[in-house]
Amino acid sequence: EIVMTQSPATLSVSPGQRATLSCRASQSVGTYLAWYQQKPGQAPRLLIYGASTRATGISARFSGSGSGTEFTLTISSLQSEDFAVYYCQQYDSWPLTFGGGTKVEIK
Amino acid sequence: EVQLVESGGGLVQPGRSLRLSCAASGFTFDDYAMHWVRQVPGKGLEWVSTISWNSGTKGYADSVKGRFTISRDNAKNSLYLQMNSLRDEDTALYYCVKDGSRTWRDWYFDLWGRGTLVTVSS
Questions:
Q1: Does B109 sit within 8 Å of A44, measured CB to CB?
Q2: Tens digits of pLDDT across chain A (107 residues)
Q3: From B99's CA, which of A35, B50, B80, B85 has a CA 20 to 30 Å away?
Q4: Do A98 and B47 count as a contact with CB atoms less than 8 A apart?
Q5: Could you give the CA distance from residue A74 to residue A55 in angstroms, rounded to a whole number?
Q6: Cβ atoms of A64 and A7 closer than 8 Å
């Protein structure tokens, strides 16, 4: 099983600032990596797939990068609606696995 | 409207069974693999199971293998999860999820239902 590790667990950021979230895989997943956003009481929403491709309707504030075992989600100029929990997920092999999440909170 | 609507959750005793259903609409259901993902309230996400568009391939997390069975009825645009021998640790919100690509290899999730809560307790 590929273990996905996200850091930090919590990120405190001021509105308008940049947030950088990390995701590490225990073995290479190539670019089979997705990012999701989840707000309280809501289902997750796909942000990024293929490590760097934004999903339909996702703001250009969100960008993904990386390959192999190291991945980054960057949120430029945080808006109020961006404060949420973010999960990475590998889909290189079964079992499909998620990271533990990074909570982005208002500083 | 493109949506997934789950049903069938509830309170069940350990060892009993439950069948979840998911009604899909707004997209060509039989073009896509489908998945179940669960989440203990306040915790992270856990993949449960995947089924290919034609039911030819199915996959399960080790934690549910041998107890849960995924199935679909393309004529009814519906996905199912038969859950047997339920355990306390199966308590979670179960999401029905659409695959993001028509390509079998791309198992990311681009449409989620609101979830149905399963509580296993005596």
A1: yes
A2: 999 999 999 999 999 999 999 999 999 999 999 999 999 999 999 999 999 999 999 999 999 999 999 999 999 999 999 999 999 999 999 999 999 999 999 99
A3: B85
A4: yes
A5: 15
A6: no
